C-alpha cells in the first residue's frame, strides 16, 4: 500500500500509486534503517513547513553567490535553534572538524574542543589540500616548526603553492580550523600532522594577524559552500594545539610516533566510509525526480490513435532509470558495511585500518563515479526540462560529481585499492594463507569453483552465480596485473615504474573487485527483509542490479570463456524481465526513498506531480520577468534593429 497518496495529486501519479503491490512504509523504513528515523524525518519536514523563516525567499537558482551564501548562513543560524544537523556553511564542521576531534584529539583536547564544536561556539573545516598538492600528502609544504623556548608551533606557508586551497567553508565561514602541516621539531621533519588553528577573531570574525584567507571563487557547482584559500605567515599556536591522540610532541620537542603510520589519515577514511550513503541518497533523489516525472510526462503514441503514453512505458526509459534505483539500494548496503568497519576502528581496533582503507578507497571511487553517471542519465531522460534548474538535476549532478575528486581523486583511490589486491596476489603466488579473515578479499585466495559460469535461463536466477562470475573476473584481472608487474620487474624495471606502467590494469582490477564487493553486500543485505511483498521488490531490484552489471562487464566475462554468448543473452533477458516486473511499482519504489519536496528541490519531482503549473510559476518568478522589456533593450538590441530598419530604407 502506498502511503504517499494525497488529495489534489496529479491523477497520473495517483493511478501509479494505486497499483502499488507492497508497503511503502516498510520499504522506506528499510532504506533509512528503521521506522523511527522515518518518523523523525517527517517531524523535521513538518516543522520546516510550519516555520516559514526556514524557507528560501525565492528559488535559490535565481540568486547570485553572495545572496546564496547569505541565505544559507541565515538558515543555518536559524537551524541551530531548531535541529542539530545544519546545512552547507557548516558542512565541513560536521563532516570533518568534529570527526577529526573524535579521531585525533587526546582526552584533554577532546574535553576542551568537542563540546564547543558540537555547540557551534566556533565553525571549523579541514585544511589539508594546497594550491600545489592535493593527492601527494607527503609533499605538502605548509610547516609547523616547534619552538621549545615558548612551547609553540610556528605555522607558515613558505611558498604560494603552499597556500591551503579548496577546503570547504574556509573562505568566509570558519574561524577555528584544522591545518595539516609538516611537523618540524629539533631540525627533523616528521611529515604531515594535524593542528587546531584559530584564523579569525571569535567576536569580530576578522582574520587574525599573519592570516590571509578568502574564497577561491565560483566553481562547477556547490555555490553555497565558500571553498577557500589560506596563507599563514609565521602564525604561533600552543604546543597543545597539535592533535595528540596518535602522534605526540613533548615540551622539549621530542616526538612520539603513532601506533599506526596512517592514523593521521583517519578523517579521510571516515569521510570516504560515510559519503557512500550520501551518494546513495543523491542517486535516490535523481531517480525519484526522473521516475515521478516520467510517470506524468506523456509523449508520443505507441499505437496510432490510442493516445500519447507516459514516457515511462518505453523500455528504453525504464532501462535508463530503474538501474539507478537499484544502484542507490546497492550503495546503501555497501555503505552500511564501511560504516560498521569505521565504527570498529573508532572503537580502538587499529588493525582494521588497512582493510578499511582498502575497501573504502575503491568503493568511494566506483560509487561516486556511478552516482554522477546515474544522475546525468536521469537528467537526460527528462528531456529539456531536465536541463532546467527547475528540475534540480543540474545542481544535483554538479554536487555529486565533486565526490569523484574530493576525499581522494578517484583514480588515486582505485590505485590504493589495487595496492591491497597486489599484496594478496603476491601471498597467493607464494602459497601464503590470509593472516586474518577478510570477507571482502578472501575470494582472491580461492580458484574459480566452476570453470564455467552457472548463469542460465530461469525465472528465478541465483545471485551467487553472478557474484561468482564477478569474483572470477576480479581474480583474473588482479593476477594478470600482478603477473605483468612481476614480468616488468624481472626485466629490470623498478617497482615504482612497473607500478606506473601497470596503472590501467591495476585500475581495472580494483574496479572489478569493488563491483564484486557491492554485489555481495546487496545480495546479503536484502536477506534481512522478512515482509514478502517488499522482499519481492528488493529481489527484483537485486536481479536488475546484478544483470545490468553483467552487461556492463560482458567483455571481461567472455574474455576467457568463463561465460558464453548465450549466457549474456540470458542476462539481457533477466534485465528486461526485471524491468517488466518493476514497472508497476516504479513510482512507489522511489516514493519509498521518502525524500520530501525540500530535499528534492525539484519542480519535476514534486510529490504531488503537479509539474506544468508549478513550472510556469517557477519561470515567472525569475527576476528577468520583473520586466516586460529589459531596461537595456533599447540601448542595444532595440537600437541595433532600428539602425537596421533605417539602413534598409536607404
Ligand atoms: C561531504 C563531504 C565533503 C568533503 C570535503 C572534501 C574534503 C577533502 O577533500 S579533504 C582532502 C582529501 N585528500 C585526500 O584524500 C588526499 C589523497 N591522498 C592520500 O590519501 C595519500 O596521499 C595517498 C594514500 C594517495 C598516498 O599516501 P602515502 O602516504 O604516499 O601512502 P602510499 O601510497 O605510499 O601507501 C603507504 C601505505 O599506507 C597505506 N595507506 C595510505 N593511506 C591510508 C589511509 N588513509 N589509511 C590506512 N592506510 C593508508 C597504504 O595502503 C600503504 O600501505 P601498504 O600498501 O601496506 O604499504
Ligand atoms: C568540491 C571540493 C571540495 C573540497 N574540499 C576540500 C576540503 O574541505 N579540504 C581539503 O583539504 N581539500 C578539499 N578538496 C581538495 C581535494 O581533496 C583535492 O582536489 C583532491 O585531493 C585532488 O587533489 P588535486 O586537486 O591537487 O589533484 P592532483 O593531486 O593534482 O591530481 C590531479 C590528477 O593527477 C592524477 N594523479 C595525481 N596523482 C596520481 C597518482 N599518484 N597516480 C595516478 N594519477 C595521479 C589524477 O588523475 C588526478 O586527478 C576539495 C575539492 C573539491 C573539488
Automatic annotation (TrEMBL):
Record domain Acyl-CoA oxidase C-alpha1: where: 265-422
Active site: 407 (proton acceptor)
Family stated for the protein in its record: Belongs to the acyl-CoA oxidase family.
Cofactor(s) the protein requires to work: FAD
Residue intervals of the Acyl-coenzyme A oxidase N-terminal domain: 24-123
UniProt xrefs under Pfam families: ACOX, ACOX_C_alpha1, Acyl-CoA_ox_N
Occurrences of domain Acyl-CoA oxidase C-terminal (ranges): 462-641
Name the record gives this protein: Acyl-coenzyme A oxidase
